[in-house]
Amino acid sequence: MCEQDRRTRIADAAIELVAEQGVRALTHLAVDARLELPRGSTSYYMRTRRALLEAAVTRLSVRARADFDAFAGSAPPPDVRAAADRIAVHLDRMLGARRADTIARYALVAEVAASTDLHEPLARAAFSRQLAVGLMTALEAPDPDTAGADLVSLCEGLVFDRVIGGRSLDAPEPGSPASIDQLSCAVETFLRGALLSNSPR
């Protein structure tokens, strides 16, 4: 196994540990144990805990961005309903297939809040404000910059509420048509409201 593959496996294991047990569980020895590596292997590649955190943040950002890009599509959706449905599918994946990554992201965002070089790319990893503004421009929102920023905030809130907030108790099972439909309805309501806004703020 080449060094880059080993580093990627270590970063993936770090993300799994954070998602399952919290940031405090992330240690060099815990990663060694998770990967069944000889004691000290992880610290050979990442000397400090900061380096281990950086590897996890970078890897999580890469994974999140790749998943987002795969579902964003190459062209803006043709109408509000299509846009809401496309966004809902992505949000539902964050709640279901990529739930562990979502939980790890929240935990790591809090852990690295004081480190701008780590916090900012991770905080922006799941959603693209630039693409959101582009979508609102394509939909002819009166104030696409504000609407795009608000759309990102809405998406973050919908995911957070279903992973950590009270809505998770009564929300449909991720991956089900009901889950996607519920998310789509919330996004569509926002989009239609943004398009009806009379003037930029």
Automatic annotation (TrEMBL):
Gene3D superfamilies: Tetracycline Repressor, domain 2. Keywords: DNA-binding. Residues 27-46 bind DNA. Signal peptide: none annotated. Pfam families: TetR_C_31. Residues 4-64 form the HTH tetR-type domain. This is TetR family transcriptional regulator. It comes from Saccharopolyspora oryzae. The lineage of its organism: Bacteria, Bacillati, Actinomycetota, Actinomycetes, Pseudonocardiales.
